[in-house]
Amino acid sequence: MAMASILSWGIMLHWKNKTQKSPQQTTFHCSQVYNPVFEEHKDSLEEGGVILKSIIRETPKSNTPTSLKTSFTNNNIFLLGDNLNALQFLNSNLKHAIDLVYIDPPFMKNVSFFRHVYFRGTQKDVPFKQKQYSDTWDLESYLQFLYERLVVIKDLMKDTGSIYVHLDEDAAHYVKVILDEIFGRENFRRQIIWNTASLNVAGFKGQIRDNYIYATGILLFYSKSDVYAFNPQFTPHAQEFIEKKYKYSDEKGRFRVTRRNNTIYLQEDPGEPITNIWNDILSFNYAKIASRESVFYPTQKPEALLERIILSSSNPGDTILDCFGGSGTTAAVAQRLERKWILCDANPHAIHTSSKRLQRIITKEETGTSSRLFQIWRSQETKNEIQKNGAKFHYVKNENKITVSFEDLNLSHPDEFPKLIELIKDHPKISLVDSIYFSFSSEELNESSFNIHYSDIPRKKKGLIHKSYQFLLPKGWRNIKYLTVLLYDIFGNAYTQFYNTET
Ligand SMILES: C[S@@+](CC[C@H](N)C(=O)[O-])C[C@H]1O[C@@H](n2cnc3c(N)ncnc32)[C@H](O)[C@@H]1O
To answer: Which atom, in ligand 1's list, is nearest to the CA of 350?
Structure first.
């Protein structure tokens, strides 16, 4: 049972075995570097294949990272592993480096979260849901879990940093007391209510029967001290307000005159200041946002929510941490708003989904080398099972032209989905391919140096990979001896294949 006690300096929450764990040192090492080198040439190959030209003239660098601190100078970071270990690892490398933290931890819902698996290139659905993470706790273990992480998070933050903890009614009130203890009650800035059914409640009618419809996200906003960044945000005035207030106009546009006789032009009016009730951000219950943004990860949050938090509580160039990263919403928005970011998740599929999401964003925004790229670091505990030679390709080298075409896939771990095997047999193997990555190197690659030089990630959930890839290598490339192809199937299993480009 959790219990509050009043001490001379405040109220503190107690539970059985409440402890602050002493730091353990878990090492993380770099397993992937996103370092695009090829772009699509306007001509295309037959059968939907693609021709790829190098966008840099030099040989791809091996770029094997030495330390996280050095890597973070130019790269954003994903950490795959339990976030207590990740936070402690960060603390020994980047203490007091974080300007803004957003976390969206499990809410103590006592359920597990699953994702649907989709075949690519066919309308047929895979009747298979894959577990992503579980949110099942007793109250004490939940509070202890968050408490020990929040203590390390505070240590990682700059003295001017802020934190937003996203919860709902099941845990928010307990966690408020914990946050008061860790950050100080005087540093509590605001409780924000995100009205998740603001625009209509049509989708929630089923809940009406015996209680009010639940439509509240709760965000607890703290700063580490009384000096912190805050940039007020505004929403545009309603048309009705404009018609009523901005009655006059001249050559400079519409204006109003205040009681003190000041003239305010509409174009200078930023709009309505945002209050702590956020009514204007669509949740994923709405088809409109789901179809635009979804990367098919359960509990994914809308980008508009993160945009408001990041714009309000950080400035370009600041560093943002989300250690319950999920589908990578925080990273996606931070990347677009030119903030540095660090994301952690214990679920390999979350990191894979986020990595694909960020690759797509960076490829679109690439205008040279200015945009920050990213690396994936994984803890020793996380297994990296990559099937060698499970995926088959047709490989041809002709002078500086290398053509690789997908041929076959021996699906790994079929025993995990026995009922699916029959169904999968009817499908062309290409419909089992989620995405495909290519890396050129001077040495045979080990896991720690996989540089993604080109990635093929279909945007639509049922979109197909290109199948055939023709790389036009620049004549001046030296010492490129190997090509490694990395393929992910729709279940998240990885396969590699090496080619010696000198033979
Ligand atoms: C609610 S989801 C976050 C969703 C995210 N905000 C988004 O927009 O996609 C919570 C995430 O926390 C991760 N998680 C839970 N426990 C964790 C732990 N101990 N270490 C790291 N990640 C954890 C889960 O795998 C899950 O992806």
So the answer is: 27
